[in-house]
Specification:
This protein has two helices and twelve strands, in the order E-E-E-E-E-H-E-E-E-E-E-E-H-E. The protein is α+β, with helices and mostly antiparallel strands. A hairpin with a 2-residue loop joins strand 4 and strand 5.
Length: 173
């Protein structure tokens, strides 16, 4: 475990505290955790599938990484007139609709708007940060013809050609 991170295991619940905050994780049934010498170890009952065991490990790892480093997700607004503005409760977005869209940012997620077209979400819970980014992305997903919409930073949008007008000369035989 990183320096400055404390882990407390109580039954099926793992409490993790660190420099950025504290989180608690509920382990799936049949997965147990134990702390010894600053190491978090996991064990499982014989009937528990490997994917459930891996889920418990991943949840704990994400909690430890979240309280020590945090998570961030970046979004870009692409399109003429598309912009974001931070307001008291969240974001005010102009996305080409007839009205501005107000998006409430959940507790535990910090938002930063740069350039009025770039949004950066940060927080200690990976699930909350990525879910918030997905909800923003869903407001106006990138469309394949002009590429306008809300993209994840680095997302590649496959573009379509659009209508192809047949040549008027010659016609059909």
């Amino acid at each position: 475990m990183p320096e400055g991170v404390n882990v407390l295991v109580e039954g099926q619940t793992i409490g993790v505290s660190g420099p950025l905050g504290q989180l608690s994780v509920d382990l799936p049934r049949g997965v147990q955790a134990a702390v010894a010498d600053r190491e978090l170890s996991f064990s499982k009952a014989t009937a528990v599938p490997a994917r459930i065991y891996g889920l418990g490990f991943a949840l704990a790892r994400n909690a430890v990484e979240g309280v020590s480093q945090g998570f961030s997700k970046e979004l870009e607004l692409v399109g003429v007139g598309y912009r974001a503005e931070k307001i008291a409760l969240g974001l005010k977005l102009s996305l080409g609709f007839s009205h501005p869209v107000e998006f409430k940012i959940p507790e535990g997620v910090a938002v930063e708007v740069t350039d009025s077209t770039k949004i950066k979400l940060t927080g200690i819970s990976k699930a909350t940060v990525t879910q918030t980014a997905a909800q923003l992305h869903k407001l106006r997903p990138p469309e394949p013809y002009k590429g306008k919409g809300i993209r994840y930073a680095g997302e590649v949008v496959r573009r379509k050609q659009g209508k192809v007008v047949k040549a008027a000369a010659g016609g059909t035989a």
